[in-house]
Amino acid sequence: MRYGVVILPEARWTESRERWRRADQLGFDHAWTYDHLAWRSLRDGPWMAAVPTLCAAALSTGRLRLGLLVASPNFRHPVAFAKELVTLDDLCDGRLTVGIGAGGTGWDASVLGAEPWSPTERADRFAEFVELLDLLLREPAGASFRGRFYAADDARNLPGCRQQPRLPFAVAATGARGMALAATYGQAWVTIGDPRRRLEGEAAMAVVRRQMSLVDDACAAIGRDPTSIDRLVVTGPNLAQGLDSPEAFVDLAGRYDEIGVSDLIVHWPRAAEPYAGDLARFEAAIEAVVVSHPPPVTPDPGEPPRSRRTDR
To answer: In this predicted model, what pLDDT tens digit does every residue of 119-137 receive, in sequence order?
Structure first.
């Protein structure tokens, strides 16, 4: 199993830099930050942009994979976002993974002044967003696209991603449509468990196990080997982190490993909720299971699926 950590983008870089460097030293395989304009109870406090934060992290670390968890169509357009991702993948020398999700109905959904989308429109936009982003990153010399929500006219992203044929996607999904997107475009699938409630123990394992069976089904439906997609479990929002002691974390990691989870992600401890915790206790728990080693080799995403390209 691999281990990751989410570091909230809430501190000035003079303070945040040491957290990213320490995550590298502790032997985490990957480190992530949330991609929001404002987030939950922390809306009125400091909150930095995700992409510049990862740019700084890329230049301050040398081993960690880095990632957004997760980008969404709420305030991003695939054309501009693809340009940022190509640049970021270059800065971190091919250590980037982009997490992508449909987004929620919070501040990010209304901050641009529009009415929040219906669940159906959100799902439709997400599908088109992922399809176009995949096309833009695979065809950096020029890609055109006409969809219902997004378009691109000979968009250039040269020199392209460091990682070929493009940087990996980690697709967040709990429903059938999202699972299908993960199976089609994702090198990894991401879950926070049941988005409606917080679970612990066997109840948490049961939810993740059931969701992973849906991932298997989605892969089978398109003829993909289910073992070729990584399964990332993000603890903290809805799943217990098990960071109270080294013994508790070893037990939790072992349970997830047994059901086939490939990557377990925790949150860097904060002085107050959410994710309040003691740094020394956190490090002791992590050191009980994490050993320093190179980042995993990303599987070849394979041939790009057919996209709606315009004739030029």
So the answer is: 999 999 999 999 999 999 9
Closest alpha carbon to 45 in 69, 96, 21, 9 = 9
Residue 307 pLDDT greater than 50, yes or no: no
* CATH value of 2-287 in 3.30.70.860, 2.40.30.10, 3.30.750.80, 3.20.20.30: 3.20.20.30
From CA 268, how far away is CA 7, in angstroms rounded? Answer: 5
Beta bridge partners of 266: 5
Sequence ranges of the domains in the chain: 2-287
* Distance of alpha carbon 238 from alpha carbon 231, whole angstroms: 16
30-33/96-100 β-pairing: unpaired
Per residue in 216-242, pLDDT (tens digit) is 999 999 999 999 999 999 999 899 999
What CA–CA distance (Å, rounded) separates 204 from 284? Answer: 24
- Asked if residues 25 and 42 have their Cβ atoms less than 8 Å apart, the reply is no
Amino acid at 229: I
Within the chain, strands assigned E span: 2-6, 30-33, 65-71, 96-100, 143-146, 151-155, 169-172, 188-191, 230-234, 263-267
Residue 290, number of CB atoms within 10 A of its CB: 21
What pTM does this model have? 0.92
Q: Regarding predicted confidence, which is higher, 246 or 237?
A: 246
| Rg, the chain, Cα only | 19
Supply the pLDDT for residue 290: 82
Residue 308 has pLDDT above 50, yes or no: no
CB 5 within 8 A of CB 265: yes
Grouping H, G, I as helix, E, B as strand and the rest as coil, residue 223 is coil
The helix/strand/coil state of 197 is: coil
Amino acid, res. 288: A
CA gap 126, 232 in Å, rounded: 19
265: β partners: 4, 234
pLDDT, position 293: 41
